[in-house]
């Protein structure tokens, strides 16, 4: 019987039974057994974080710097092992898994540095003889709720700034992928984090997540996931007068203009739409192509899509790993049927793939003759499914790109400085990409969207301070 990975509450590993974490590349393989917390245990975790807050919020910057830095170093040293764990539980290919662990380590390193750069401002008051100081303070207990698609990077980019700015944390990772979050917490504890500062409550959103939403002692919630759950987080947080931050869906466009380099266009779109099995909120599922390049581009992309090597996440040649679970697979295949029924043309992929192991393998699907009104163009699929929309010129392409309720990432492939510059200014998205994929972002700069994609301050980079700390303005009369 595999070892039980327990929850961490007030410095103690707790739990007596758990559930199996299944490998989507091989559903007969159990990645590990992970405990599921109850609502009571979640409340104990929140109470522990609250009790640990006064001391941690006043801890020395060197202590915080050293813990985050040691965590980064251990993650880097173990990136092959942790990358394999990630690929086994989520289905990303091994290079993608190792890349994500590396990124998580870089995030801890970045925030270890930010601890040493904490600064405020001093300003003269409008009243002579009075000075003004603006400083940042920790908030309190931060609840972190994360999705399954980036099992180590997303927990890292929420936990690291929360701790760096002096908050205590209760984290609930996605029930499908507890392993990577468990590994981060284990490393942080061994790196010297005092008890109660970080608490791990694995389990179901309806139980553990809901208990966090219902607690008056959670001062802020940082959430990434679906729009539906995001709205619940928002409603509950308003009720408790709590700070919250939401990263939700995307329906990200990539425009391909007549003047694009064909190879760059094909590779950029293949990467944006299908890599990581399309399971990225930054994935591009609307490919908006001007008339002059349309047929050449579609032929070349369809060829690339037919030849994408789908298989076991740890397979040496695999480019596209499995879909994460049966429910996401059903969602993907349902949308492929909606696309066909609404009159789009399936020109490549879309069929289940047989491999040596039993997993949720799907050949990425490419539609042409899509319109921006079809469901495949309006609703987030979160799988390897994309539709090409033909337009006459750049102006129509831009209008189509912006015609969506989302606004996370938007890309353009062009050799024209004029159109690239115009697009950077006029794309209604939080992140704009010129000749690079819409997905796969840097760890040290802000991440987030506009419109229905995001709510609240940006994540990552120095901008994370906006969410994970609160500003105080102090006036002092010289006397
Ligand atoms: N923008 C993004 O990065 C992501 C978007 N999505 C979108 O969401 C769809 C569904 O994915 P899914 O993972 O189910 O997304 P969810 O929004 O359901 O899950 C995200 C997190 O919220 C938790 N949660 C669920 N219900 C509650 C609740 N009532 N209170 C508090 N927390 C809760 C989940 O727990 P549990 O794991 O138990 O469900 C998980 O940890 C995808 O198909 C995709 O469209 C999904 C993942 C990431
Ligand atoms: O594209 C990326 O690098 C990040 C994507 C992401 O955060 C997400 O899909 O949730």
TrEMBL record:
Q: Which domain of life is it from?
A: Bacteria
- List the active site: 247
Per UniProt, residues of the Aldehyde dehydrogenase domain are 16-473
What InterPro entries does the database record attribute to this sequence? Ald_DH/histidinol_DH, Ald_DH_C, Ald_DH_CS_CYS, Ald_DH_CS_GLU, Ald_DH_N, Aldehyde_DH_dom
Q: Care to name a GO molecular-function term for this sequence?
A: oxidoreductase activity, acting on the aldehyde or oxo group of donors, NAD or NADP as acceptor
The answer on whether this UniProt entry bears the keyword Signal reads no
Spell out the CDD domains in the cross-references: ALDH_KGSADH-YcbD
Q: Which UniProt keywords apply?
A: Oxidation, Oxidoreductase
Q: Name one Pfam family in it.
A: Aldedh
* Similarity annotation: Belongs to the aldehyde dehydrogenase family.
| Record protein name field | Aldehyde dehydrogenase family protein
Which organism is this entry from? Devosia ginsengisoli
């Amino acid at each position: 019987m595999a070892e039980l990975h327990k929850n961490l509450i007030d410095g103690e590993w707790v739990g007596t039974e758990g559930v199996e974490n299944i490998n989507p590349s091989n559903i007969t393989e159990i990645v590990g057994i992970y405990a599921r917390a109850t609502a009571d245990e979640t409340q104990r975790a929140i109470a522990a974080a609250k009790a640990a807050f006064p001391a941690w919020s006043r801890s020395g910057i060197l202590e915080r710097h050293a813990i985050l830095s040691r965590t980064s170093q251990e993650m880097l040293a173990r990136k092959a092992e942790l990358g394999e764990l990630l690929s086994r539980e989520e289905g990303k290919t091994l290079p993608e898994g190792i890349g994500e662990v590396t990124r998580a380590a870089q995030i801890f390193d970045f925030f270890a540095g930010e601890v040493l750069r904490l600064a405020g401002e001093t300003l003269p008051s409008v009243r002579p003889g009075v000075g003004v100081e603006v400083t940042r303070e920790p908030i309190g207990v931060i609840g972190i709720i994360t999705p399954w698609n980036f099992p180590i990077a997303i927990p890292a980019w929420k936990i690291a700034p929360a701790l760096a700015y002096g908050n205590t944390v209760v984290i609930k990772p996605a029930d499908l992928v507890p392993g990577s979050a468990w590994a981060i917490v284990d490393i942080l504890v061994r790196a010297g984090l005092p008890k109660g500062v970080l608490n791990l409550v694995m389990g179901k959103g309806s139980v553990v997540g809901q208990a966090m939403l219902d607690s008056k002692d959670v001062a802020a919630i940082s959430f990434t996931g679906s729009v539906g759950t995001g709205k619940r987080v928002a409603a509950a947080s308003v009720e408790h007068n709590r700070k919250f931050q939401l990263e939700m869906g995307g329906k990200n466009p990539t425009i391909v203009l007549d003047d694009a380099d064909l190879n760059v266009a094909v590779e950029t779109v293949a990467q944006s739409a299908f890599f990581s099995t399309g399971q990225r909120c930054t994935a591009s599922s609307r490919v908006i192509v001007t008339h002059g390049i349309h047929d050449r581009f579609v032929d070349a992309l369809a060829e690339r899509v037919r030849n994408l090597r789908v298989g076991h996440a740890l397979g040496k040649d695999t480019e596209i790993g499995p879909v994460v679970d049966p429910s996401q697979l059903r969602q993907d295949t349902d949308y492929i049927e909606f696309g066909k029924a609404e009159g789009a043309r399936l020109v490549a992929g879309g069929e289940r793939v047989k491999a040596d192991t039993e997993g949720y393998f799907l050949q990425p699907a490419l539609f042409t003759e899509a319109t921006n009104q079809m469901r495949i163009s309006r609703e987030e699929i979160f799988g390897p499914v994309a539709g090409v929309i033909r337009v006459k010129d750049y102006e129509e392409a831009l209008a189509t790109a912006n015609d969506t309720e989302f606004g996370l990432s938007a890309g353009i492939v062009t050799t024209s400085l004029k159109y690239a510059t115009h697009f950077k200014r006029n794309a209604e998205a939080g992140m704009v990409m010129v000749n690079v994929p819409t997905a796969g972002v840097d760890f040290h700069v802000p991440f987030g969207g506009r419109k229905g994609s995001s709510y609240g301050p940006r994540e990552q980079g120095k901008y994370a301070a906006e969410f994970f700390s609160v500003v105080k303005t102090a006036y002092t009369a010289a006397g």
